[in-house]
Amino acid sequence: MARTRTGFVRRRRHKKVLKLTKGQWGTRSKNFKRANEAMMRSLWYAYRDRRQRRRQLRRLWIQRINAAARINGMKYSQLMHGLKRAEVSLDRKSLAGIAVHDAETFSKITETAKQSL
Fold first, then answer.
1. How many angstroms separate the CA atoms of 82 and 88, rounded?
2. Which letter does DSSP use for residue 31 in this model?
3. Per-residue pLDDT tens over the stretch 34-47
4. How far apart are the C-alpha atoms of 89 and 78, rounded to whole Å?
5. For 67-78, what is each residue's pLDDT tens digit?
6. Which of 13, 45, 46 is nearest to 32 (CA)?
7. Does pTM top 0.90 for this prediction?
8. Which of 19, 33, 35, 104 is most enclosed, with most CB atoms within 10 A?
9. At the topology level of CATH, where does 12-116 sit?
């Protein structure tokens, strides 16, 4: 049986990796070995940071809700407990949006939470 070389397969894999690392600094976009290391690390960071983005956004929403709640004379935890008891099903993302863009509506929501406590 004839010996086969990895010419086409290897070239295709190298081109794929070098295309992914295009725009990186120095040999990280030129040399396959360095590019492969950079690609693996960047893909791992992308995977990790997609999860961290959700955590950071939730923290931001909670901070915004807490700031608006304190303006209306409540703490964040009291507000959330009151909304749960009043059976108001608003998630933190929409509550934060209301707190930022529509202060009057948020104060009405706070009143609802106060009454249920």
1. 9
2. S
3. 999 999 999 999 99
4. 15
5. 999 999 999 999
6. 13
7. no
8. 35
9. c-terminal domain of poly(a) binding protein (1.10.1900)
